[in-house]
Amino acid sequence: MPRKRRQEEHENLERWLVSYADFITLLFAFFVVMYAISSINEGKYRVLSDTLVEAFNKQKIELEPVVEERPVAQESPQAVIDPIAPIAPGSSVIEMLEETARDNMLGQIADDFEVAMQPLIESDLIDINREDLWVEVEINTSLLFKSGNAELEDEAIPTLSKIAAILKRYPNYVQVEGFTDNLPISTYLFPSNWELSAGRAASVVHVFMNNGVPPERMAAIGYGEYRPIADNATPQGRRKNRRVVLVILADAKARRALDIKRNTRPARQGAGSS
Fold first, then answer.
1. Which of 54, 225, 227, 260 could form a disulfide with 182 if both were Cys (CB 3.0 to 4.6 A apart)?
2. 201 with 220: CB under 8 angstroms?
3. What is the distance between the alpha carbons of residues 98 and 94, in angstroms, rounded to a whole number?
4. Residue 201 and residue 224 in contact, taking contact as beta carbons nearer than 8 Å
5. 177 or 37, higher pLDDT
6. Which tops the pLDDT comparison, 25 or 204?
7. How many CB atoms lie within 10 A of CB 82?
8. Which runs of E-coded beta strand occur in the chain?
9. Which of 34, 165, 169, 41 is nearest to 104 (CA)?
10. What is the DSSP letter of 175?
C-alpha cells in the first residue's frame, strides 16, 4: 500500500510583525530616554528609567488568542525617595517630561540673563540665582535709585529694557520684589520702608510693561526692611539689603514653594530692623 504523503505545514508569513513591533517599541523608548536625559536633573532620570523598565517588563506579546479575560489587580507604584528631585508617587512619564521641559526653560532663562548682564554681574551689581522652581535676578538698588527715592535713574532704563527683552520671550510669571535696609524713613511719599520698597518694585514693573512684558504676568511686592540677607549693622550689609529681586516662576506651585522657603529662611545674625 503506498505511503501517504505528509501534508506540508503552512508557513506563517506574518511572524515578522512581532519583531517589527518590538523594534518600534524599543525605538520609542530610546527616544523618550534620550529626551529625558537631556536634562541635568539626575533624580528625574533615575525615576524615568525605573518607570520604563517596570513598564516594559510587564508587557508580554502573546501569539495565542486570549480565551478568558481576568481582572488583574493593579500594583501600587513604588515610591522613589530622591533628595535631588522628589517626584510624587504615581507621576506619569508625561508629567516627568513636562517637568524636564520646564527645567530646561528655566535654565535657558538663567543663561540668557547671565550673558546679557555679564558686565554688571562682574561688578557685583546683579546676581543670578538658579533654583528648581524659579530663577532670581537680584539687582542692587544703587544701580536703579537714589537714596530714599523710588524714581528710576535715567541710567537704569537701558538695563531694565534689556531684562524686559528677555522676559517677554518666555511665558513665565514674574514677581518684582523690593527690599530696603533698616534705616528708618518718614516722608510724605514714603511714611516707612514698606512704601519705599513697594514703590521701587512698582517702578520696575512699569518699565517692563512699557517694554512689552504682559502686565497680567507680573506682580509688584514690597517687603520693606524685614527680610534682610546681610547684617544691617555695617554699611556693606545695608548695601546688600537694598535690592530689587526679579523672581521668574516655573509654574503656579512655584509661588507656594517660594513662599515656604522665604518664610522658613533663618534670620541672618546681626540683621537689624526698626
1. 225
2. yes
3. 6
4. no
5. 177
6. 204
7. 13
8. 126-130, 134-140, 174-179, 218-222, 243-249
9. 41
10. E
Residue with cell 542692587: 140
> Residue 91's pLDDT is what?
52
Nearest 5°: CA angle at 196, between 227 and 191? 110
Instruction: Read off the pLDDT of residues 15-32 as tens digits, 9 standing for 90 and up.
Output: 777 777 888 888 888 777
- Expressed in angstroms, the distance from the first to the final Cα of the chain is 118
**pLDDT tens for each residue of 157-185:** 999 999 999 999 999 999 999 999 999 99
> What is the phi/psi pair of residue 73, to 5°?
-65, 130
Q: How do beta strands 134-140 and 174-179 pair?
A: unpaired
Task: Tally the residues of the chain.
Answer: 274
| Residue 22: predicted pLDDT | 81
Residue with cell 504615581: 90
How many whole angstroms separate alpha carbon 173 and alpha carbon 108? 15
Residue from 236, 226, 237, 216 nearest 262 by CA: 226
Residues contacting residue 258 through CB under 8 Å, at least 6 positions apart: 133, 134, 175, 247, 249
List the grid coordinates of 72. Answer: 488583574
If one compares 274 and 238, the residue with the highest pLDDT of the two is 238
